[in-house]
Amino acid sequence: MKKIITYSVMFGIIFFLGACASKVSYENPEQVETLTPEFGSTDLQMIAGKMVDSLLATPILQSGQRPVVYVHKVKNKTDEHLDTVSITDKIKVALIKSGKVKFSAVSEANDEILKQLEYQTSSGVVDPKTAKTFGSQIGADYFLYGEITSIKKKEGKTENFYYKMTMNLVNIKTGIIEWADEKEISKQAKKPIIGK
Question: What range does the domain containing 155 cover?
């Protein structure tokens, strides 16, 4: 009888743990994500898409010159923890793929670039014919920067979430803002009458 009870308890525990296990499935990353009203993957894609389309339509990128751009990480001015590197990277990757712009790696890898130049020119290990030297980097023509802000309001069971992304492209030589645009996102969530 003890064995039956022991096996029943063990089976019950295994069944309970199995029922509590998460079920994981792959989803289409382009699919609209509506799990919560907070900033999510769909918002990131909408913002990046708007900024890229707008920037590609500017005369600066229509000239065929492929200007060099220095990009600064998007500033997060919301009260949420947002991965602004992902927003910046999504915009940068789409612009590079367009073939209409080049990006300077100085903001991301300047220390590594300098270490590699130092190694190639001073170590004596690299063949001087193939060593890259200081003073050959190409200066950026433009500086791209932006920020994301938010406003949240709650009344009863209804919450409103508003996000605004603004980006600017500055001519480094003149200091003039040559392009600017913004993308607004507004979402509303209503909690059920019964429950939390």
Answer: 37-104+139-190
